[in-house]
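Sample entry was shown:

___
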Amino acid sequence: MRTWGPLTAVCLGTFMLLLDVTIAVVALPDMARGLHASLSDLQWVMDGYALALAALLLGLGAAADALGRRRVHVAGVVLFAVASLLCGLATGPGMLVAARGLQGVGAAAMFATTLPLLGSVYRGRQRSMALGVWGAVSGAAAAVGPVLGGLLTDGPGWRWIFWVNLPVSVVAIWLTLRVVPESRGAAGRRVDRAGTAAFAAFAAALTYGAVRAGSHGWTERGTSAAFVLAVVALGAFVVVECRVADPLLDPRLFLRPAFSGVMLGALAFNAAAFGVMSYTSLWLQTLLGMSPVRGGLVFVWLSLASFVVAAAGGRLLHGVPARLTIGGGLLLIAAGQFCMAFLDAGSTASALVPGLLLVGVGTGLVSPGIAGAALSAVPAERAGMAGGAVNTFRQLGYALGIAVFGTVLTSRMEGTLPHDAAHGLAGGAAGALRGVFGEHALRAAFASGLNAAAATAGAVAAVAGVLVLVLVRAGGDGRGTGATPSAAPVPKGEEAAPAASYRR
């Protein structure tokens, strides 16, 4: 128990929080029907969680250093469990979105303390083993999410994708309190509340503007106001971080080309690889009539390819410059998305397989090495900051990808369908529209929108891949694909050990 207990406790929390990033993907059509949710509601069901996780990850990591990491971790699990219960009890889309945001807050507290807790318990080879297991569990959560979500949605119902967290949370809390010792960061470190608030405002305003643009247009007053607020909040964040003694993220790090390239790659990676999945799931179930289980199994091609490449790459690609694995992986993700941008009214799920395999191979190349590349691009004393930043940018990229690609999807569909019909179809309301527009027209419209979203995702990945190859080389990159998946600073004086990074 002394060896495996802390690792088991931490991995339980990690598995839950990463599972909930993707488990809801295949349940979206059932949620839309059960709660009469619109497309923007469904976008916020996914974005509310990822956005809260991204916005608060750095701030809660710093707070945990001062308040106690075990204390903050347990509080996060408790909040996550309560929010999961509320998600399952939701009577409308507003309540579900709010509960998902609360889940994200709890997940940020858990994720920010995961690696520091492991770093305080394990040393040397034990630490390498522990982080390796943690990385494998993280990858398993990404792979299992769509399939488990489909099984629960098809069986007891979509509410159980949240309620399944409750017994796991109870075990995680009990085990953490029993076997994980308390630890803190360096004495005297202050919590950057102003920086945390400014970054949260920036991320929320930017994502809100992108979602709102889908239903109101890019130049509409409310959309423009959201983007202006995002710019102001970002400026405030930069000013605050340049002046505080203990910044969450030192803006001067972005003067290093290698660091900027890795952060850009992290942002584009989660957006391009996973941002279209929600809309693909809607197409599979609402247009092709697949069950949640069958719809979830379609994404297994991506998960399996990612797992195999990541596992093999750790040995075969050791010593290869990280800019090649990250930049090349992003280019493969771009190729995969472009392959999936040729759907039509007669397309079936099999048309996605080549593209999903390419995206999976690209994911398997990018994910294990991106955190390690971030660490090698900064001074050693900034390692924890860089690790937290790369995970923050990944989750922010996922939230923005869902928002932007959803807007692209509906904009293209509005070329053939009225505004309300396009948003209703994208929201899963195909049944009510079939008698008005016909099956062929609806399939053609959704396929066209999905093609535009996939092509946009491919363009994002392609541009980011080229920039990573150029910028990381310009700043000097790390070697190898080993990563240190820091969600928050490892205790001072504790060197980080290589491990596989989480995939989503």
Summary: The chain has a mean pLDDT of 84. The CA atoms of residues 63 and 311 lie 34 Å apart. DSSP finds 20 helices and no strands in the chain. The first helix runs from residue 5 to 22.
